[in-house]
Amino acid sequence: MSERDADTRGRIYEPNAEHAFPDERVNDILDALAANEEVQVYLEAQNVNPVKRKRYNDHGAKHISIVRNRALCLYDLLKAGGVEFNGASDQGLDEADEAVIVALASTLHDIGHVVHRDDHPYYSIPLAADLLDKILPEFYDVGDQVRVKGEVLHAILCHHTEEQPLTLEAGVVRVADALDMERGRSRIPYERGGRGINTVSSQAIETVTLSSGDDYPVLVEIEMNNAAGVYQVDNLLKAKLTDSGLESHVRIIALNTREDGNQIVERIEL
User: Fold this and answer.
1) For 113, which DSSP code?
2) In this predicted model, what pLDDT tens digit does every residue of 201-241 receive, in sequence order?
3) 119: alpha, beta or left? (left if phi > 0; alpha if psi -120 to 50)
């Protein structure tokens, strides 16, 4: 494995790599999203309320890129581990549509931030539905447009609400959203004086990597430089993993890499 492969494994979805699922359809969807001007404007505009106005962590284009990459890598590892997904299959859709649902929901899950940070998943639903009505006709007939749209909206709703994911596709999006916790995400609000727990705890997270585990399909390894990172691991990632449907498939190990002997927390395993 090259040094670049080692750096991106479990972090960056590579369309041209070999995957444990049929990837042609999702790769076409990803190209369409990248070329869609309205989608791209939303990804920039949705960052104003959380970052500029509330001094919260990044929720713009960079966040979406990271979440979508993590979601597709997580999905790929789960498929390689033999995990069977139910969202697309319950609707009579193809296996290839599982990744499409994950990719679309990961891309559009936060657009409700253009309305408000509070309760944003509920605002994301009508905005995403409108965009999906423009995107999906290029790829599906009317029946499958409705089915894919419903599954994408379900995943968007469940990413940050009390509603429990009813599909593993939705569970992947929910968990992937919490996997964007590295310190770069909090750089802008931190530099502007934001000192909320999300910002400070994000500053403590150095790296997050995904790989196949010995006893689990997915091993999430987190390196942190300060005990404040425990908030990201326990209050955010663990909370989103709970009731995601993925609890039995994912193992989380967080290590405090601080070397000055002041390690309040050295290791967490979930």
Assistant:
1) G
2) 657 788 899 999 999 999 999 888 876 777 778 778 888 99
3) left
